[in-house]
Design a protein that fits this description.
Blueprint: E1 7-10, E2 32-33, E3 37-43, E4 53-56, E5 62-68, E6 73-80, E7 83-84, E8 88-91, E9 100-108, E10 114-122, E11 126-131, E12 134-139, E13 143-151, E14 159-162, E15 169-177, E16 183-190, E17 197-204, E18 214-219, E19 222-230, E20 236-243, E21 252-259, E22 269-274, E23 281-285, E24 291-296, E25 301-305, E26 319-321, E27 335-344, E28 350-358, E29 364-371, E30 377-385, E31 395-398, E32 405-411, E33 416-423, E34 427-428, E35 432-436, E36 444-447, E37 453-460, E38 466-475
Antiparallel strand pairs: 1-30, 2-38, 3-38, 4-5, 5-6, 6-7, 6-8, 9-10, 10-13, 11-12, 13-14, 15-16, 16-17, 17-18, 19-20, 20-21, 21-22, 23-24, 24-25, 25-26, 27-28, 28-29, 29-30, 31-32, 32-33, 33-34, 33-35, 36-37, 37-38
Length: 476
């Protein structure tokens, strides 16, 4: 039986009807989400985090990748012809060398080819070093790479290759794809101790091979939360948070580099200065190359758009998003916002979601807003949630054609994994419980060019220390 939640705040009336979930692979009379499918079971002695990344093809076929935290094996599952497969290994690190993996992300081409990027690190081994004129035993440098894996249509095994040169630290791998199947990847790269940290990229044009790595930014400052987005005609954006040196106007900044249609990356751009550290940064880009940035700032959610291309100050003044006009956010309240997420359609519509608390009443809500390309609020709504002592952080996704958007979260109070969907014709539908969810974890979402979407999340089992990855898909 499907549970429907009552909206706590609604500013647009939804005509979205009540639909029952259908069995996977069976056509639905109306848009809905499929019954949950078990993908795999993992064994952990601590609560796992949902590291899944989900990609969706034009026909609804999907692929999800994640890292099994018990052994660092990168796993994947596919949805074909309406049915999710059991998980298999995409990359198995060397246990004897204590190799680890991180930051797995996946995209799909129109023909169903899947491309996944991961970071791998093998710790250094004991060797002889000279210190103070003496020969001593020391730990050698680690070996780290950004790797690309490709699963061709009909293939049963992924082909793998290094995208980066060897470094002592390679992480924060990202991958993006445009409507024409051009692919762009990025990662954070440290060649050796004492050198600056670099952001590097590589691209694969349609029908072509991967390019050599290109350094688009380097700094001795602390760099965190890089986020990559890709538009049409070669436009791209790589954004991050940077800890600035003492004496700067602000201690932190949201910065970015922008790639134009000729493939040339801009010098670094300052999108915003921050008085305190942000913990979330998201980016998105429409088909014309106009980019949107979203981040949390002092318990509020802020948004900036790249208002023009190739001008000296392209970013708009940061705008604070509010659940209700006039709402005040901050450490002392009365409201606080957390963990915003962002998705952008090809036409420039923006879907935003975040978790919000009212410190006066003690109530919590999931907030969702659809903004037009012009920046006006088209539809806004909220649902009550009980995060308990944890974090019921939401995730959002939006199809490139703007035909369907979704927001999903795990309610720690009920242990339900919930998803609500938006269509331009009907507005926001009521949240559906797509299964039980693991306390304090998130739901991974993905969508494609049209009205298809998939979700992957974690849930408990009846056996202690065993957890399951679950999958469900939206049927338009």
């Amino acid at each position: 039986m499907i549970t429907i939640f009552k909206k706590s705040t609604v500013t647009i009336f939804s005509l979205f009807a009540f639909f029952s979930l259908t069995s996977a692979g069976v056509a639905s009379a109306a848009p809905s989400w499929t019954n949950p499918a078990s993908l795999t079971t993992v064994t952990l002695f601590n609560l796992p985090t949902n590291s899944a990344s989900v990609a969706v093809g034009p026909n609804g076929d999907s692929v999800a990748v994640w890292i099994n935290e018990s052994n660092y094996v990168v796993q994947y599952a596919q949805r074909k012809n309406g049915v999710w497969s059991a998980a298999k290994a995409l990359y198995t690190p060397s246990a004897t060398k204590n190799e680890t993996t991180s930051s797995a992300h996946v995209v799909m081409k129109a023909d169903g080819t899947a491309l996944a990027i991961i970071a791998t690190t093998t710790p250094g081994v004991l060797q002889y070093c000279v210190s103070g004129g003496r020969v001593v035993r020391c730990l050698g440098p680690s070996k780290s790479f950004a790797k690309i894996a490709t699963l061709a249509v009909g293939a049963t095994a992924w082909t793998k290759a290094n995208l980066s040169a060897q470094g002592i630290l390679v992480d924060d791998t990202q991958i993006a794809i445009d409507a024409s199947d051009n692919v762009l990847a990025s990662w954070r790269y440290l060649q050796s101790a004492g050198l600056q940290t670099q952001f590097q990229t590589a691209n694969q044009p349609v029908g072509g091979a991967w390019s050599s790595p290109q350094t688009v930014y380097s700094s001795a400052n602390g760099l965190s939360f890089p986020n990559l987005s890709l538009g049409a005609s070669g436009h791209a954006l790589l954004a991050w948070q940077e800890k600035l040196i003492a004496g700067s106007i602000t201690p932190f900044a949201i910065r970015a580099v922008y790639r134009d249609s000729t493939g040339v990356w801009s010098p670094v751009e300052d999108a915003a200065g921050l008085s305190s550290q942000s913990w979330t940064l998201r980016s998105g880009m429409d088909a014309t190359g106009l980019a949107t940035l979203l981040w949390d700032n002092n318990y509020s959610v802020q948004l900036s758009r790249r208002t023009a291309i190739n001008i000296s100050s392209p970013w708009s003044v940061a705008e604070t998003l509010t659940s209700v006009p006039g709402t005040q956010y901050g450490y002392s309240g009365p409201f606080a916002a957390y963990a915003p997420d962002l998705a952008v359609s090809a036409s420039g519509d923006v879907l935003v979601g975040w978790l919000e608390s009212d410190t006066t009443s003690g109530l919590w809500t999931i907030e969702a807003q659809m903004l037009s390309a012009a920046g006006t609020v088209q539809a806004t709504t909220s649902w009550s949630v009980d995060p308990q002592t944890g974090s019921s952080y939401p995730s959002v996704t939006l199809s490139k054609d703007g035909s369907v958007g979704s927001i999903a979260w795990v309610d720690n109070g009920t242990s339900n994994a919930n998803v609500a969907s938006f269509t331009p014709a009907s507005g926001w539908g009521q949240p559906l419980v797509i299964g039980t969810g693991l306390w304090d974890s998130q739901v991974a979402l993905g969508s494609g060019l049209n009205a298809n979407a998939s979700a992957v999340w974690l849930t408990n089992t009846a056996t202690e220390f065993k957890y399951k990855y679950m999958g469900s898909s939206y049927l338009p």
